[in-house]
Amino acid sequence: MKITPVILSGGGGTRLWPMSTPECPKQFLKLAGDATMFQMTLARVMDREFFNAPLIVGNAAHAEIIAQQANAAGVPDASIILEPCARNTAPAIALAALAVDDVKAPLLVMPSDHLVAEVPVFHAAIMSALPLVEDGWLVTFGITPTAPETGYGYIRVGDELTAATSRVERFVEKPDTATAQAMIDAGNHAWNGGIFLFRADIYLGWLASLAPDILHAAQKAMEQAEWQGVNIHPQEAAFAASPSDSIDYAVMEKADRVAVAPVSMGWSDVGSWDSLYEISAHDAAGNSLQGNTRLIDSHNNLVRSDGLRINLIGAHDLIVVAHGNEVLILPRGHSQNVKKFSS
After folding, report:
1. How confident is the prediction along the chain (343 residues), in pLDDT tens digits per residue?
2. What is the maximum span of the chain, computed from C-alpha positions, in angstroms?
3. Could you list the residue range(s) of the whole structural domain that residue 289 is in?
4. In 149-228, where do the E strands start and end?
5. 286 plus 221 within the same structural domain
6. 136 with 202: CB under 8 angstroms?
């Protein structure tokens, strides 16, 4: 049975302001190559031997840019569910699970704004997890930690189920640095990357028992949805009545048949300018440059501009971003504070 990719594209990307804006959030930007992050996500599931046409869940305000970028990526057959309002990931995935033709179809749920450097490794992990999924398990992909990151949730890996999967013992909230280091040293924790694989009917069944208000709102919204070509418009009032909750809180942390497939695939959520610096190519002086820039005696800077020329002399360890009329300058290591400007 082919897998149906479900690509979640409703995020706002506030931590990558000023380039990421409500009108064009980070998933639609070319931050790490010649394609946007959204298009790179589509590219991971292009093989129609294994994957059905994707089902994209996005903000109704982004309908035009989603369609344009999907077509430019060579994916004109994608169906697009346009959320009339934001209700977090559990309701968004419910809409997708209700939209598929075969309720026993495996759904591969992926955020549209993450990077995966080792795509074949990701595909191998997916295929290894499929037998559990067919048997009714909910599977999450646990990213092998490379540092004691405090911006991610963690998964404690429990008893082995197969050679490639284990039972999830528990989910761990974002820890402090000491706790994160202790978990990494223990060797039995993975980052929670927010990528899932499960059957549509199994997910809906867990919603029915754990979060029935979310399920009922999604069902009503889809029963009254308007279909316009590839675009699906859930009924606004019905969907707005749904509680706003993540799949982690609503289902994954409460269900009792949840497995984790640990994988080391060069993953990043590109959640800040600092994380973009870490994964980007650098020149001999350690600078990551994109756009109109000129540097003299400057080292270890991230510089991005889509218009203005940025000139640096004797500058070190800075983040400098210019977009339109906005210029952001701050020391590297402090980019989590950027969201204070974008709120």
Report:
1. 899 999 999 988 889 999 999 999 999 999 988 899 999 999 999 999 999 999 999 999 999 999 999 999 999 999 999 999 999 999 999 999 999 999 998 999 999 999 999 999 999 999 999 999 999 999 999 999 999 998 899 999 999 999 999 999 999 999 999 999 999 999 999 999 999 999 999 999 999 999 999 999 999 999 999 999 999 999 999 999 999 999 999 999 999 999 999 999 999 999 899 999 999 999 999 999 999 999 999 999 999 999 999 999 999 999 999 999 999 999 999 998 898 886 6
2. 62
3. 280-342
4. 154-160, 166-172, 189-199, 226-228
5. no
6. yes
Residues 210 and 130 in one domain: yes
**Number of alpha carbons in the 13 Å side-chain half-sphere of residue 138:** 23
Helix/strand/coil percentages in the chain, nearest 5: 35, 30, 40
Does 285 share its domain with 255? no
